[in-house]
Design brief:
The chain is built from 14 helices and no strands. By secondary structure, the protein is mainly α. Helix 2 packs parallel to helix 9, helix 3 runs antiparallel to helix 9 and helix 8 packs antiparallel against helix 9.
């Protein structure tokens, strides 16, 4: 079925949304294993996926706790990573135009993947379909595979011996890499990596990720200065 305003066929939107939801939803297994291996209980692990439901923040939290970081510092790092979802919500609220009663429930699904699928759609109908199908598929699969991963971690035993402690960062990098399209975005990511890894041996666990967040304003400042200089040079040449 094609929408009346000439948008994409509904089946095509559903297919794309399912592809994203299934691909990313299966990564919840890695989070379940990592979280359980970090010392969190089955209930705590599942609660994080049910209530927080933003992979980057979840991995950051359990990673900092596993390294012996202060719980408040770990939570702060996870919070700052999750702040981006609030900005996604500002844009999606305009595109979705949902009834007020539905918005609090839809807000739980405002994450990187649902935003990417929704923004790729040409009409409001397809935006709503893409957002809903991606959100529902991802939420169900992420929580199911989180449970399976946490339960499986008990049978696996020492996750460090299997190298599964690297599963979280690997999944996060796999999700992040395709989003780095501009030079500025790559510069922010590169500087954040340098800061995070460089400060890891000298700062308490959980703090390096907070410092790495300074990469964004630093890179944007340099980019702004560069553009101002280019503008000034162009203005002089016109004179």
């Amino acid at each position: 079925m094609r929408s009346d305003d000439g948008g994409k066929p509904d089946a095509a939107v559903v297919r794309d949304a399912l592809g994203v939801g299934v691909a990313v939803g299966l990564s919840g297994f890695a989070f379940g294993v990592t979280s359980a291996g970090s010392g969190l209980t089955l209930l705590q692990t599942c609660a994080l996926s049910l209530l927080v439901f933003t992979g980057a923040s979840q991995f950051a939290l359990v990673g900092a706790l596993a390294a012996g970081g202060n719980p408040l510092t770990a939570a702060a790092g996870a919070f700052f990573l999750g702040v981006r979802n609030a900005f996604y919500g500002l844009r999606l609220s305009q595109l979705l135009a949902l009834p007020r009663a539905v918005r609090p429930f839809a807000a739980q699904w405002v994450i990187d993947e649902t935003t990417a699928v929704a923004l790729a759609q040409p009409t409001r109908r397809s935006v709503r379909i893409g957002f809903t199908v991606t959100g529902l598929t991802l939420y169900v699969l992420w929580n199911l595979t989180t449970l399976l991963g946490a339960v499986g971690a008990e049978a696996i035993g020492d996750t460090d011996a299997w190298g599964l402690d690297a599963a979280g960062p690997a999944v996060f990098l796999a999700l992040l890499a395709p989003m780095l399209k501009s030079t500025t975005e790559r510069a922010v990511a590169g500087l954040a990596i340098v800061l995070g890894l460089g400060l890891l041996p000298v700062l308490p666990a959980g703090v390096p990720v907070l410092v790495a967040a300074l990469a964004a304003p630093a890179a944007l400042y340099v980019e702004g200065r560069r553009r101002m200089k280019t503008t000034d040079n162009g203005a002089r040449e016109e004179r």
